[in-house]
Amino acid sequence: MLRLGEKQELIIVKKVDFGVYLAESGEKEQERVLLPIKQVPAGSAVGDALEVFLYRDSSDRMIATMTTPKLMMGEVAELTVAQVGKMGAFLDWGLEKDLFLPFKEQTTRVKAGDRVLCALYIDKSNRLCATMNVYENLRGDSPYEKEDRVSGRVYQISDNFGAFVAVDNIYSALIPKKELYGEVRINTDVQARVVKVLEDGRLTLSIREKAYLQIEKDAQELLKIIDSYEGALPFNDKVSPEIIKRETGMSKNEFKRAVGRLLKEGLIEIGEKVIRRIG
Fold first, then answer.
1. Which of 2, 20, 22 shows the shortest CA–CA distance to 10?
2. ∠29-31-36 over CA atoms, to 5°?
3. Residue 28 has what pLDDT?
4. Which of 9, 92, 226, 258 is most buried, judging by how many CB atoms fall within 10 Å of its CB?
5. Nearest 10 degrees: CA dihedral of 196, 217, 245, 203?
6. Separation CA 181–CA 242 (nearest Å)
7. How far apart are CA 232 and CA 276, in angstroms?
8. Residue 70: which of 152, 5, 135, 136 has the closest Cα?
């Protein structure tokens, strides 16, 4: 059986002026595919075995190539957006025909020049397409352990669960909603800490430091924010969590802990409706 999106070894069964036809070895009813003449290795003869990749050309005909694309079935890879059309985007995957990424398979809208993490699937018309929903193609056999530092690409954000991350663009991970901090966006890279390795091998991550380190980090960030307001933040720790989140990226508890650290160090003072930097 000829398999789209994969590399497989096929046998040359016929030579023609414009290339060679390939088929599986030992098949009685041989399904054949063309390898264009410019792709045929010099000296090739009927009966030779060639390892080729199968996809569809601009006329939607199955065709073989000796070129290995940047993405194959079952893999995940970052590809560059070559252009955006009326129905979706087209990605450069190293073959003559760009790979189609439909709008419905985009977890966020992309533009020309973007690098997007994607996988392959076969659509209802039996054509190879790209999807940014890569969860099923990510692995659960990472070498990482609790407290290891990792980096990965955010490929999806769920209001219920948090941010889904492809660690090293290979391994499946989740930053739970309660662990999200600051601005985390789809198609951006994050640095994180492994807080748990689940039974199926998938990783639970946090982009926050351990508590005592995070408080100091938040305190320093809050000082920068106060300085951006010329030394007087126009609200204190009694305002709504929504205002705190919008202005600082912190939860109310994180904000209050940072304020407490700065008060203890004598770096700020709290007024009725303001937090001022001292000195």
1. 22
2. 145
3. 56
4. 258
5. -10
6. 14
7. 4
8. 5
Which residues does residue 178 pair with via DSSP β-bridges, in sequence order? none
120 close to 93: Cβ distance less than 8 angstroms: no
Nearest-angstrom CA–CA distance, 56 and 128: 7
For the stretch 141-194, pLDDT in tens is 988 888 888 999 999 998 889 999 999 999 999 999 888 776 788 988 988 889
Hey, CA dihedral for 176, 177, 182, 184, is it positive or negative? positive
Residue whose pair of structure tokens reads 């039974």 in the numeric block: 199
Q: Starting from the edge strand earliest in sequence, which strands make up the sheet with 275-277, in order?
A: 232-233, 275-277, 268-270
Which of 133, 108, 112, 119 is closest to 187 using CA atoms? 108
- Number of neighbouring beta carbons within 10 Å of residue 258: 25
Domain span at 178 = 139-206
Mean pLDDT, to the nearest integer, of 253-277?
84
Q: What is the DSSP string of 74-118?
A: T--EEEEEEEE-SSEEEEE-SSSSPEEEEGGG-SS---TT-EEEE
- Residue 210, pLDDT score: 61
For residue 186, the domain's CATH number is 2.40.50.140
Percent of the chain exceeding pLDDT 70 equals 95
